[in-house]
Amino acid sequence: MRRLVAGTLAAGALALSLTGCGKSADPVGRLGPKATQEASGAGPSGTPSAAPAGSPSGSAGASDEAYRKWGLTAPLAYAPKPARKPPLPQGAPGRAAVVDRIPVPADDKVVFLTFDDGAEKDPEFLKMAADLKLPIAMFLTDSAASSDYGYFEKLRDNGSASTVNNHTLTHPNLRTLPYAAQKREICGQQDHLEKRFGTRPALFRPPFGNYNDDTLRAASECGVAHVVLWRVSMQINNFQYAEGSALRPGDIVLAHFRGPSELKGSTETQMTARMLQRIQEQGFRIGRLEDYL
């Protein structure tokens, strides 16, 4: 069973690797992202939780005016922390588990926001994320983000319960590296992030979504519980899907900290507003990834 799951996830990672991060990425959508399709109906009422209804865990929720300020036509809907975490894939002994979609019920229309790398450090995005209380799982690469880790500390501490996670030291294709080099990339960034932010991340994303058994073994030895992939990536205007042409419950959405030079003149806030609009159009809520892992 583990081999079947791992094989399925590896195939998904390969299909998505061209929309991952780094210089071989497709930041301007040259791969031809499929247009999103509007889905009818709103999300379910949600599972009982101690968190305020309609707000991410640990957040007081966005103000009524915030969505208009950032170009949205309606308030965002947030999924509360579930009473129980869903059953997740388990890693083999000594291996981190791989997850590319959260296994929520079919009627639980919740998706999760993740942002990679850390090259762009737009002050306006800090304001947007704080105003909208966006719960973002950040996957930071040291070579891109370390010039101003304080920026991501502000994003983490803005009241939205965002988190800092590992995306290697230098953003290599890990499948091309031997075990020892992979471990240096992963553990080295674990050490940097723990020293800078006070917590050793439990989540790791391999660059381009590329990994092998050595990656899972090294990640586990570095203290990682889950290797987090994705099924949907945000381009400039629309989503690109690994399968189908619409969001699915539990989708992990990949976006990047990128600026106008990589977004054909669009800003990070404009790209994010379009992403949030697409989520709203399909009737989905936004959850905090760590509440489900």
Notes on the protein architecture:
The chain is built from eight helices and ten strands. By secondary structure, it is α/β, with parallel strands linked by helices. It has a single domain, classed as TIM Barrel (Alpha-Beta Barrel), CATH 3.20.20. Strands 2, 3, 4, 7, 8, 9 and 10 form a seven-stranded mixed beta sheet that branches. α6 packs parallel to α7.
What is the topology?
Elements (H helix, E strand, L loop, with lengths): L1 H15 L49 H4 L27 E3 L10 E8 L5 H10 L3 E5 L1 H4 L3 H8 L6 E4 L12 H19 L5 E2 L8 H9 L4 E3 L3 E3 L4 E3 L10 E5 L11 H14 L3 E3 L6
Parallel strand pairs: 1-6, 2-3, 2-9, 2-10, 3-4, 5-6, 7-9
Antiparallel strand pairs: 7-8
Helix pairs in contact: 6-7
Q: Which architecture does the CATH hierarchy give at level 2?
A: Alpha-Beta Barrel
CATH topology: TIM Barrel
> What CATH first level would be assigned?
Alpha Beta
Give the N-terminus to C-terminus distance in angstroms. Answer: 20 Å
Order of helices and strands: HHEEHEHHEHEHEEEEHE
- The number of E-state strands comes to 10
Instruction: Give the tally of structural domains.
Output: 1
Q: Could you state the CATH homologous superfamily?
A: Glycoside hydrolase/deacetylase
What would you call the shape?
globular
Which value, in Å, is the CA radius of gyration?
A: 18 Å
Number of continuous helical runs? 8
Low-confidence stretches: 1-18, 22-53
